[in-house]
């Protein structure tokens, strides 16, 4: 409602010029005063009259606006990264956004709450309104680099890629380059993709029906030690593409120069993007991390980013903190032990490799990082692509929400090196992890079972067991010294991932040293004064964990330090691989005690093996012969 002075609506059609007068004299005052009073009275009456006036749209409307509480009404549509337990958020750079976007659950919960509190008015539209065309619903959406876990493995990843291809093709003409790993372990994945190829491109054909038949072109290449250009040039005939994929020859060298291959295919077919004014994407299909990251990663990222080429990977999750993992690979129906280089998820391994005494370490070896390998994930992140995790370990999994604050550093290798140079604790951790993972020298696993059908047999077995444990403690002392070089900088570490890694490394080294000292102590006691069996027929002793740490005061102090570190990890980093491994370490007490048992021993104390069936021996002989023809040495794990 506007209150408008009626004088604003008065229109004077005729203005009468008055004769000029001098200033009033005293005789004219009474008449002038009466006239003035009458006019003032008229003006007051008119001013008291109000009416509603509809103003033209061209007139300015000035009104006051109630100030609202922005915290209550602003809804940020972007997914923020939750950092640590405080929940403070920060916007990550493109590389950092490679971490999985699990914070969307919190946003969805807030959105549901808002929707439940807002009254939805009755729609004023009717069914007669024209619905938008199907093509219009597929708007182009900028997808920042990330890691994704599509349901359905490879099939789910291909479905997601179909959407990515469709969105890019909607913008303009498109070139898609499929780059396949030639390792034998990827043959099943290649065939799965070939099986779905025609179906995928049929869906895309709906979108380009009205376009030129050459609007979507496809090229195929393969990589191993070298790059093979399977299609000489990009093609439009999908049947030809499927045929070419199935014709890719396998390579068993174990070399996977994937980053060189991405660079080569990008340069070879860049003219299709530049001259043909096309979008261009490269899709890598592999199950490992690549062997040429140090030599070629940075150059490949620079070239693809500069030229706007998005990179996607259909790959595997990296094992937690390790470069390699043991697996099995089927060759002609036989399971062959193999080593796959599928990690690490960081630039360098940040987890030390130590055995778990007295318990099965299988669960620890099968831990997943929840992320793709560092170099391939960073390539996707820097180019605004996506790393699709289509296969993960069958070990313990962790809630992505709990892992959100622990994403790896997706930064350049040189910048990672600067991080190490700026903090002695980080440098010490990486150096220690490398010493346990890359060194040819391995730490021995102590013997826990000792034959004792005679005292002499027992003493000989103990003597044989003491030597490797002495070597073990020497190696552990070296690791402790390496980590101690960074202890002063530990308090300067802000990132929870680095804190957890350092504390776990030091805690596990100290705990293992305590076990080694206690082990030597109880062996020496048994060697000098052998125990007698309480149960008739028992002929051997086994060392089992005990809460009684029988050693010197310095070792007991070390035991206290280890326990405090490991408990601190469980409290500070719950629901993570670090707390899982710390709990595994603490589940086994640090001391030792003897338990008697019975083994099948000969007179010399050697274990007697049961006879193998002739059928088993024949099967093993045939297996060795078949694998030998394939060039596979069964005496060592196959590199795949």
Automatic annotation (TrEMBL):
Keywords: Membrane, Transmembrane, Transmembrane helix
Domain of life, per lineage: Bacteria
Region (Disordered): 603-640
Pfam families (UniProt xref): VWA
Record-annotated membrane-spanning stretches: 29-49
Domain VWFA intervals: 175-315
UniProt entry tagged with the keyword Transmembrane: yes
PROSITE patterns assigned: VWFA
Coiled coil, from the record: none
CDD domains to which the protein is assigned, alphabetical: vWFA
Compositionally biased region (Basic and acidic residues): 614-633
Keyword set includes Transmembrane helix: yes
UniProt-recorded name of the protein: VWFA domain-containing protein
Organism annotation: Gimesia fumaroli
UniProt lineage: Bacteria, Pseudomonadati, Planctomycetota, Planctomycetia, Planctomycetales
């Amino acid at each position: 409602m506007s209150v408008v002075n009626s004088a604003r609506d008065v229109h004077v059609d005729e203005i009468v010029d008055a004769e000029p007068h001098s200033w009033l004299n005293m005789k004219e005052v009474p008449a002038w005063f009466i006239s003035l009073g009458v006019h003032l009275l008229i003006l007051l009456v008119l001013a008291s009259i109000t009416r509603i006036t509809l103003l033209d749209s061209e007139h300015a409307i000035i009104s006051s606006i109630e100030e609202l509480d922005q915290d209550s009404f602003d809804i940020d549509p972007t997914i923020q990264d939750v950092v640590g337990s405080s929940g403070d958020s920060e916007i990550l750079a493109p590389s950092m956004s490679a971490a999985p976007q699990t914070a969307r659950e919190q946003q969805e919960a807030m959105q549901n709450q808002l929707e439940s509190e807002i009254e939805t008015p009755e729609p004023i539209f009717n069914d007669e309104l024209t619905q938008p065309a199907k093509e219009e619903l597929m708007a182009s959406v900028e997808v920042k680099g990330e890691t994704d876990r599509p349901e359905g493995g490879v099939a789910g990843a291909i479905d997601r890629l179909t959407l990515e291809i469709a969105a890019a093709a909607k913008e303009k003409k498109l070139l898609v380059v499929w780059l396949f790993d030639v390792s034998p372990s990827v043959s099943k994945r290649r065939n799965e993709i070939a099986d779905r190829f025609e179906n995928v491109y049929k869906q895309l054909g709906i979108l380009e029906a009205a376009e030129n038949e050459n609007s979507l072109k496809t090229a195929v290449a393969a990589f191993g030690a070298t790059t093979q250009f399977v299609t000489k040039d990009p093609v439009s005939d999908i049947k030809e593409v499927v045929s070419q994929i199935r014709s890719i020859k396998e390579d068993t060298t174990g070399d996977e120069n994937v980053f060189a291959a991405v660079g080569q295919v990008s340069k070879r077919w860049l003219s299709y993007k530049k001259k043909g004014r096309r979008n261009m994407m490269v899709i890598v299909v592999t199950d490992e991390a690549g062997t040429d990251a140090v030599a070629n990663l940075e150059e490949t990222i620079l070239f693809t980013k500069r030229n706007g080429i998005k990179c996607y990977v259909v790959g595997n999750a990296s094992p937690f903190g390790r470069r390699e993992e043991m697996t099995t690979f089927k060759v002609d129906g036989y399971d062959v032990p193999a080593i796959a280089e599928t990690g690490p998820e960081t630039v360098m391994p940040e987890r030390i490799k130590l055995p778990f005494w007295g318990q099965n370490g299988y669960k620890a070896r099968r831990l997943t990082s929840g992320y793709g390998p560092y170099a391939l994930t960073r390539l996707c992140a820097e180019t605004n692509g996506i790393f699709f995790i289509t296969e993960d370990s069958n070990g313990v999994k962790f809630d992505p929400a709990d892992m959100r604050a622990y994403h790896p550093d997706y930064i350049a290798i040189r910048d990672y090196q600067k991080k190490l140079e700026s903090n002695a604790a980080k440098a010490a951790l990486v150096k220690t992890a490398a010493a346990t993972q890359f060194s040819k020298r391995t730490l021995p696993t102590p013997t826990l079972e000792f034959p004792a059908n005679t005292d002499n047999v027992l003493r000989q077995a103990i003597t044989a067991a003491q030597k490797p444990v002495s070597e073990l403690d020497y190696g552990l002392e070296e690791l402790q010294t390496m980590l101690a070089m960074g202890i002063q900088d530990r308090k300067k570490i802000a990132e929870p991932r680095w804190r957890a890694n350092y504390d776990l490394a030091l805690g596990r080294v100290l705990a293992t040293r305590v076990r080694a000292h206690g082990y030597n102590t109880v062996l020496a006691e048994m060697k000098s004064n052998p125990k007698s069996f309480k149960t008739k027929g028992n002929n051997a002793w086994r060392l089992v964990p005990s809460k009684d740490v029988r050693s010197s005061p310095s070792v007991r102090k070390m035991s206290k330090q280890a326990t405090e570190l490991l408990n601190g990890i469980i409290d500070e980093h719950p629901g993570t691989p670090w707390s899982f491994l710390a709990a595994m370490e603490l589940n086994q007490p640090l001391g030792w005690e003897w338990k008697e048992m019975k083994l099948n021993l000969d007179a010399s104390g050697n274990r007697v093996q049961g006879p193998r069936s002739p059928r088993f021996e024949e099967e093993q002989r045939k297996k060795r012969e078949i694998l030998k023809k394939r060039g596979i040495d069964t005496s060592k794990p196959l590199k795949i």
